[in-house]
Amino acid sequence: MKLYTRTGDGGQTSVKGGRVRKDDSRVEAYGTIDELNSFVGQAAAAAAREGLGEMVAELAEIQQELFDCGSDLAFRDPAGREFKLTAEASTRLEGWIDAHGAAAPEITRFILPGGSEVSALLHVCRTVCRRAERRAVTLSADIAVHEPVMMYLNRLSDYFFAAARAANAKLGVQDTEYVRSAEVFRKRDS
């Protein structure tokens, strides 16, 4: 199988149900999700080096679900289509967010991305995820977007924040607070 087809040389690409320009809003949305997936792979590799096996398993599942998200956004006309991502994926993320939140110390101020390599990479994932979500919102102005994809991307950026903080905690690295921040986070209920 050849990797090149030459069919996109004129600035168009195939989507499910036809061809569109390569700068089409759906291509921007699923292309940004693909970019995010690459960063998730990099974060998973770093987590594996640090022995964070449970997090590696979560990130592997997230990579599968990101492919589902991209697939669900790749329809030229999504009306009446069968989608892959379900709302249960967001519910599972919520459980992981809660677990990672409990594993990290309380915060009262904004924190700066970084600390350990794993945490820094998860923060990159968080920001690229936010961009993917913005691209999906832009797409939703043109066509109906599968609602579980929107929910998932919104929840996923929260997951990356919680996982980044948990990675630092598990690796014994303190988060760095934004020193000019007021206290903006409430204390956890006991």
Automatic annotation (TrEMBL):
InterPro entries attached to this UniProt entry: CblAdoTrfase-like, CblAdoTrfase-like_sf, PduO-typ
Pathway: Cofactor biosynthesis; adenosylcobalamin biosynthesis; adenosylcobalamin from cob(II)yrinate a,c-diamide: step 2/7
Entry keywords, A to Z: ATP-binding, Cobalamin biosynthesis, Nucleotide-binding, Transferase
Residue numbers spanned by region Disordered: 1-21
EC number(s) given by UniProt: 2.5.1.17
Coiled-coil intervals, chain numbering: none
Membrane-spanning intervals of the chain: none
Catalytic activity: 2 cob(II)yrinate a,c diamide + reduced [electron-transfer flavoprotein] + 2 ATP = 2 adenosylcob(III)yrinate a,c-diamide + 2 triphosphate + oxidized [electron-transfer flavoprotein] + 3 H(+); 2 cob(II)alamin + reduced [electron-transfer flavoprotein] + 2 ATP = 2 adenosylcob(III)alamin + 2 triphosphate + oxidized [electron-transfer flavoprotein] + 3 H(+)
Any GO molecular function: corrinoid adenosyltransferase activity
Protein name per the record: Corrinoid adenosyltransferase
